[in-house]
Specification:
By secondary structure, this protein is of the alpha/beta class. The chain contains 11 helices and 13 strands.
Amino acid sequence: MKLFRTLERALRRLRDKVFSGLRTFDGFRYFSLLTINEDIVLVTRQFSDHRLIFSPHEAIGRNLFKDGHYQRDLADRVLEIIGDTTGRILLEIGANIGTHSIYLTRSDRFDRLICIEPALSNIQLLKHNLLLNNLNDRTTVVECAVGDHDGVVDFYFNEKNFGASSITKPDDGTYSVQVSLRRVDSILREIDVSPDDIGLVWMDIEGAEPEAMKSMKELVDRRVPILMEYVPSRYGPSKATEMTTYLAQHYGRCVVFGGRSEREMDIRNLPDGTNDILLLP
């Protein structure tokens, strides 16, 4: 029996070593992802400096499983560009399951987080992930969508990509529920946060960016750095021009991230397509 247990432990160590080596190959990680059955609803994974629980069947979760991160390189680069800020609060609008909130706090730049998220499925995972990473005590989770007025709005779900759910109505028959709609300035007043204390706004809200910008005038007036997804095709030419003209009156610099490229541009001449843009004083 003792010999059997020794052999079993040796085989287990060999197995772990073999699979550890195989996981370094992109093809093996992708194949492993394909073999996950639909009845495995959630996966918890330990990364180098944090832990996340996520669905392996939707876009962000697949990236986490296959690549080991979701846009962490972008988060690290944004922190490098903005440098030290006087504001010690991170405001994430469209926090999803908390990946970027966690990435951005690993730098110890922020003492407090405000996470705004309207989707109940995301909110549940967001709260779990904050707890897993000991961030729940210094995070305020606000359960709503963001827009240019306070009220109620239809929120449309994308089951294959939780991050693509939006208050912007899609072309297909995606189901929707009504959620609370809040202005950013209303939220900050309600939770007693001064705009001066915000060091960075991270925003990805799938087409609702122009309306959200109108609701955070105090932050824009103070030229707080903002990282946002910019997709002019979702806004239409008139609304896109109106937003970029407004932002150009306040921000002096804009860094555009597209694919693996990075370039500084005039805000009024932003490119078409989908890009992440960083607004800087």
